[in-house]
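Data availability (excerpt). The following record was deposited with the supplementary files.
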Amino acid sequence: MVHHAFTLAGETLHALPSGALYWPAQALLAVSDLHFGKSERRVRRGGMALPPYEAQDTLTRLQSDLDATRAATVICLGDSFDDLAASDGLPDDARLWIARLQAGRRWIWAEGNHDPGPVDLGGTHLAELRMAPLTFRHIADP
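Predicted structure:
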């Protein structure tokens, strides 16, 4: 698996080419700003549609990272959806794909500035995840 290893707070982390972060000691994969539903939201607000492949591309990259790392825990660090309505508009095939990715794993949706509420896609919704010595969240806390 191609990655850049670095140490933070005494923990070895792997920055992956996809932009994800893997914490081998905890078998945790952290991803952020997936923005599912971006095209649908743009159309809803009178904008031009984006190509309909955004969810497929995002899920393909996420699947690749999960295949490579075998992560037991996934935390989606906010802005997983472009807004609350976007999770409702997610196509059935994308919902099924997410369910397959979640199977056998702890899956956490952390709230972001676009998606502060819980989503109806399985997993747990949290404002942040604390796993000493690290805390995972979308919105910085000084």
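Summary of structural features: The first helix runs from residue 38 to 44.
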